[in-house]
């Protein structure tokens, strides 16, 4: 499922007309019909179409046109339809025009009695700030929604007032409970504050041929996409089939990270997990992570050469290496990383374990001159905004649109697969493609969840998944696993280790090729 900017959407529509004769009125019919179908399929359980009261706010452009088509279908299915034409200030209540002096009062009554209010005021054609009277109308709707919990607001294509390219919002923008977007999700959905205005997102099929979308550079992560990326699990497999993972990390102040990363690598199905830790750390892990094996490294005092040599000696036969969780940032550790990277770069491609660098691995790198030239090809890095800021020597936003350009630019410049983490994580490929996760869950904003993600990526790499795909699948499944935890615990109080048993369930959900979420 591709993500579009407004210009890309216009170009798709123009091509659909030129190449397939799908003119704007045809697309609008399809849009309104599919919005009606999605709406009916997702009515609240206690609502039936018969007698359902739906107020449509109709705008002056094609978004309003979509609303009118949808209204016709809902009326045919038994709903009572009220239409407010914003520009003309004309109100029709159940097929009767309301006389001009009565409009304001009757509109207010229609807002009060509506079960659903459909926002088809403005879509991708919004070109200026909302006028004061439109803001006043939307404010009245919002106020009604606050006072009457059973009222639902459904946005067609996008909530009016949201910038479809950037996710910026007009002060009058409406918070929807549900957004039925047409053809493709819009780029602005993935950035804040816009993301918060969407409610549940559904994608209406308007009949655009799939090949028109093929060259678009940005995709949304969906269950279907992730399904196509998962490694095969053949019946006659053994643990060698699914690859060995080595993790270099763990230090006295941060013992837990490597445990979380190692467990997560195993939970995505890697065949064997080895933790490269010092003898001093061994008792901590040996008693808590029974499934792992250990590569025992000499203590810090042994010096970087001896430590690097020991790690390198263990690497043979490993398909994936994660550097970073809880590693610390001592000068000898930095030296060890340098030597290991040098070793990896010198290996032929087929013998080289795929590399993931996270957390202190990234912090150590960012202290080195032109660090990106030290990485072997196809390295995955997974910075949070703070780490990204140190790597790029710039301030990095937690959620606004500037993240997308930055991720794209830096993946290209650094020649890495870059997962820029946060709500709506972006995965950028050095050749310009990007994938973005619409799923967000504040329960994940807690220490250790990043270690779990890095372990998942490494576990998929060990199974032969390509780096861009391994990062994409992990990002999606990580949030999906968190939603399973949140079904029980809500959106606070998750421990990173709670994610671990949910990871196979998330994979299982994707493996049976469930409909895309959002579908
Ligand atoms: N063109 C097509 O082929 C299709 C268009 N679709 C729908 O059409 C929408 C885009 O249609 P339009 O380009 O007509 O755009 P809109 O319907 O978003 O609005 C454009 C109209 O609103 C006015 N306007 C812009 N900013 C305003 C503001 N702040 N306050 C008040 N009026 C304002 C413009 O002058 C113009 O008349 C999409 O969001 C989607 O809903 C879909 O029906 C699918 C097919
Ligand atoms: N609101 C959110 N929605 C979705 N994912 C989130 C949210 N907040 C944090 N995350 C995810 O949680 C993880 C946190 O990682 P990180 O900041 O590296 O933590 P740590 O280093 O403590 O493990 C990342 O994968 C990030 O994308
Ligand atoms: K709208």
Give short descriptive properties of this protein.
single chain, 519 residues, alpha/beta, Rossmann fold, UDP-N-acetylmuramoyl-L-alanine:D-glutamate ligase, 10-stranded mixed sheet, 8-stranded mixed sheet, 16 helices, elongated, binds ligand NAX, binds adenosine-5'-diphosphate, binds potassium ion, isomerase, ATP binding
Overview of this protein structure:
The protein folds into two domains: 6-215, Rossmann fold (3-Layer(aba) Sandwich), CATH 3.40.50; 224-511, UDP-N-acetylmuramoyl-L-alanine:D-glutamate ligase (3-Layer(aba) Sandwich), CATH 3.40.1190. It has a ten-stranded mixed sheet with strand order 9-18-17-16-15-14-13-10-11-12, sandwiched between helices. Helices cover 40% and strands 15% of the residues. With 519 residues, it is an alpha/beta fold. α11 (359-366) runs parallel beside α12 (385-392), α14 (449-462) packs across α15 (467-489) and α14 packs across α16 (496-511). Residues 13, 24, 27-28, 31, 59-64, 66, 122-131, 134, 156-157, 182, 206 line the site of ligand NAX. Ligand NAX binds at residues 13, 24, 27-28, 31, 59-64, 66, 122-131, 134, 156-157, 182, 206.
Rounded mean pLDDT score: 95
Order of neighbouring strands in the sheet with most strands: 9-18-17-16-15-14-13-10-11-12
Task: Please work out how many helical segments DSSP would assign.
Answer: 16
Task: Provide the gyration radius in Å.
Answer: 26 Å
Helix content, binned percent: 40-55%
* Outline: elongated
CATH homology superfamily of the largest domain: Ribokinase
| Strand percent estimate | 15-25%
What is the top-level CATH class of the largest domain?
Alpha Beta
**Low-pLDDT residue intervals, each spanning 5 or more residues:** 515-519
Q: In total, how many domains does the architecture comprise? A: 2
CATH topology of the largest domain: UDP-N-acetylmuramoyl-L-alanine:D-glutamate ligase
Main beta-sheet strand count, sense and barrel state: 10 strands, mixed
Distance between the termini: 10 Å
- Summing up helix and strand content along with how strands pair, one would put the structural category as alpha/beta
């Amino acid at each position: 499922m591709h993500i579009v900017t407004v210009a890309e959407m216009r170009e798709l529509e123009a091509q659909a007309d030129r190449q397939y004769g799908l003119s704007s009125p045809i697309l609008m019919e399809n849009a309104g019909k599919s919005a009606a179908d999605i709406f009916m399929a997702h009515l609240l359980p206690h609502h039936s179409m018969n007698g359902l009261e739906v107020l449509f706010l109709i705008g002056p452009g094609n978004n309003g046109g979509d609303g009118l088509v949808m209204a016709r279908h809902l009326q045919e299915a038994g709903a009572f339809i009220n239409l407010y034409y914003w520009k003309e200030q004309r109100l029709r209540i159940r097929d009767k025009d309301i006389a001009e002096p009565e409009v304001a009062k009757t509109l207010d009554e229609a807002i009060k009695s509506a079960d659903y209010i459909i926002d088809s005021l403005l879509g991708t054609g919004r070109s200026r700030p909302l006028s004061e009277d439109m803001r006043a109308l939307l404010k009245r709707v919002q106020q009604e929604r606050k006072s009457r919990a059973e009222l639902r607001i459904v946005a067609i294509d996008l909530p009016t007032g949201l910038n479809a390219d950037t996710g910026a919002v007009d002060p009058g923008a409406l918070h929807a409970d549900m957004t039925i977007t047409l053809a493709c999700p819009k780029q602005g959905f993935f950035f804040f504050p816009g993301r918060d205005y969407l409610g549940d997102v559904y994608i209406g099929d308007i009949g655009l041929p799939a090949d028109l979308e093929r060259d678009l550079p940005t995709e949304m992560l969906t269950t279907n996409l992730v399904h196509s990326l998962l490694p095969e699990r053949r019946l006659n497999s053994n643990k060698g089939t699914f690859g060995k993972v080595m993790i270099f990390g763990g230090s006295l102040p941060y013992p837990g990270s490597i445990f979380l990363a190692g467990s997560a690598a195993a939970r995505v199905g890697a065949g064997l997990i080895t933790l490269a830790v010092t003898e001093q750390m061994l008792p901590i892990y040996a008693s808590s992570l029974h499934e792992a094996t250990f590569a025992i490294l000499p203590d810090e005092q042994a010096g970087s050469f001896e430590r690097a040599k020991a790690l390198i000696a263990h690497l043979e036969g490993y398909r994936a290496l994660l550097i970073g969780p809880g590693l610390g940032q001592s000068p000898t550790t930095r030296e060890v990383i340098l030597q290991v990277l040098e070793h990896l770069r010198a290996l032929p491609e087929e013998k080289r374990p795929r590399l993931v660098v996270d957390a202190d691995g990234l912090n150590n790198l960012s202290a080195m001159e032109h660090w990106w030239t030290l990485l072997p090809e196809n390295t995955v890095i997974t910075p949070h905004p703070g780490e990204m800021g140190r790597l790029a020597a710039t301030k990095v936003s937690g959620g606004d649109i500037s993240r997308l350009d930055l991720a794209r630019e830096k993946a290209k410049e650094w020649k890495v697969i870059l997962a820029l983490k946060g709500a709506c994580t972006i995965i950028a490929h050095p050749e310009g493609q990007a994938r973005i996760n619409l799923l967000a869950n504040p329960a994940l904003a807690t220490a250790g969840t990043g270690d779990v993600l890095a372990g998942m990526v490494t576990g998929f790499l060990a199974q032969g998944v390509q780096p861009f795909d391994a990062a994409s699948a992990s990002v999606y499944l990580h949030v999906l696993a968190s939603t399973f935890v949140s079904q029980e615990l809500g959106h606070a109080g998750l421990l990173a280790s709670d994610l671990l048993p949910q990871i196979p369930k998330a994979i299982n959900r994707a493996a049976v090729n469930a409909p895309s979420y959002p579908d």
